[in-house]
Write a structure and sequence with these properties.
globular, single chain
C-alpha cells in the first residue's frame, strides 16, 4: 500500500506542476502560519476563520496546516499524492463555502463583494493531477520508493524519467 502512495510517473511535467503549486501554496500558507509576505499570522488567521467566517477551529487549523505543510511536501515531492488530495479538498471547500456566491471571476476590478473561484479551479486541476499521477521525477517519493526496495523493472524509464542508452 505504501508503494502505491509513493509510486510516481517519472514525467518531469509532474515535477513542474507540483513545484509551481507548492510554491504558490507556500506563500499563502506562510502568510497564514507565520505572518510572512504581508500575512496576518497564525492567531489572526485562526480568529478570522473561526470568528469571522464561522469555520470550526479544527477545520481552520487544517486549512492553515494544509497550505503550509502541504506546500512543503509538494516542493520536496514527499507524499505528493497525499498533499495533492489535501490541497484539492481544501480548495473545493473554499469554493463551496466562500467563493461560489461571487461567481467565476476573481475580483480584478474591485467591483465584486468577494473573489470568484477561477484560481481555485486551476489549483484543483493541478492538485488532482498530482494526486492521480504522483510527484514526478526528482521527488523524494521516487527516491524513497526505490530505497524501500522496489524493483527497477517498476521504473522502465530509467532513474530520472528517460531511458538510458546502454
Amino acid at each position: 500500500m505504501f508503494h502505491k502512495l509513493l509510486h510516481t510517473d517519472l514525467d518531469r511535467t509532474f515535477t513542474l506542476l507540483r513545484f509551481v503549486l507548492g510554491t504558490v501554496f507556500f506563500v499563502h500558507g506562510a502568510q497564514k502560519m507565520l505572518g510572512w509576505y504581508g500575512g496576518a499570522g497564525f492567531d489572526a488567521t485562526m480568529s478570522m476563520f473561526s470568528e469571522g467566517m464561522n469555520i470550526p477551529a479544527p477545520l481552520a487549523f487544517l486549512a492553515i496546516a494544509t497550505e503550509f505543510f502541504g506546500s512543503l511536501a509538494l516542493i520536496l515531492g514527499l507524499l505528493g499524492r497525499l498533499a495533492g488530495v489535501a490541497i484539492l479538498v481544501e480548495m473545493m471547500v473554499a469554493v463551496f463555502l466562500v467563493h461560489l456566491p461571487f461567481g467565476f471571476f476573481m475580483n480584478w476590478t474591485g467591483t465584486q463583494g468577494g473573489e470568484g473561484f477561477e484560481y481555485h479551479l486551476l489549483a484543483i486541476a493541478i492538485a488532482l493531477t498530482i494526486a492521480v499521477k504522483g510527484a514526478g521525477a526528482w521527488s523524494l517519493d521516487y527516491a524513497l520508493d526505490r530505497r524501500l526496495g522496489r524493483p527497477t523493472a517498476a521504473y522502465p524509464e530509467g532513474r530520472w524519467g528517460k531511458a538510458h542508452a546502454h
